[in-house]
Amino acid sequence: MSKLPVFLIGGAGPVAPREFAALIAALGPVRQVVPLDMLVFHGGPPEPGFSLDTETNALLRSMDEIGADGAHIVGYSGGAAVALAFACDHPGRVASLTLEEPAWIGSDGATVLEERFWGDLTAAMELQPYEALLGFRDLMVQPQVSASLPAVAADAPWIRSLVEGVRVSIGAFAGAEVDWATLQRSPFPIYAVVGSLSNPVFELRSRRLAERLPRATVEVFEGLHHVVPPHRAAAEELAARLQAMWAQAE
To answer: CA 113, CA 207: separation in Å to the nearest integer?
Structure first.
């Protein structure tokens, strides 16, 4: 089998080519790598009726545009939620699935901590944009990390669109569920990645995913977190893990 392309789906941060620049460099030119943005964050104002289907359909179009019948899919944060939803809808197009700190894995079986996290995030998004951004950022990491994060300019032009994207995403996630039965029948490997200093909810989600899908593996990267994630700060190590999984899957 020839080497399949890789889709890297970003989240609420910088555009995907910049978000994944270190990982793309670490992967090298061996296979086609396609960085892809979520529409809700980088596609202009979200359209009425936005849902996870909006994002998964965009990923499907991108795969069709390059003539890829299948691909390895890597998603970070909101992009991991899109990757997971895509795998439920189009399992035959997925060669492997990597979920780095997914923003959503459905509510079925969610823990009390996860439910409290959603409540805190929803409440933060009701604040004014700058305060909402700070609330969002602080919720992504453990308290001792939050205190050391760099300052963000209150007039940064991207704040309003990021906050609106998070608000719309919360609604989209609330209206969706994971098709666990389809995922359990599907053979592709699943690799869940989390930073040890992220909000504990991210590791809880990854462990819950692995409980439902025994072929899924979870790796915790020590000293990293949602704001400084493995694909940026441990790109070489993550790339080696991915290359090994892709080779085995093919």
So the answer is: 13
Q: What is the pTM of this model?
A: 0.96
DSSP string over 84-120: HHHHHH-GGGEEEEEEES-S---STT--HHHHHHHHH
b/e burial code for range 57-77 (CB count within 10 A of at least 16 → b): ebbeebbeeeebebbbbbbbb
Token readout for 162 is 């990021």
Identify the domain containing residue 138 by its residue range.
6-249
What is the CATH classification number for the domain harbouring 25? Answer: 3.40.50.1820
243 touches 27 (CB < 8 A): yes
What is the distance between the alpha carbons of residues 34 and 24, in angstroms, rounded to a whole number? 9
pLDDT for 2 equals 67
Asked if the structure places residue 22 within a domain, the reply is yes
Instruction: Provide the number of structural domains found in the chain.
Output: 1
Does a structural domain hold residue 1?
no
- Residue-wise pLDDT for 155-189, tens only, equals 999 999 999 999 999 999 998 999 999 999 999 99
Give 45's pLDDT tier (boundaries 50, 70, 90).
confident
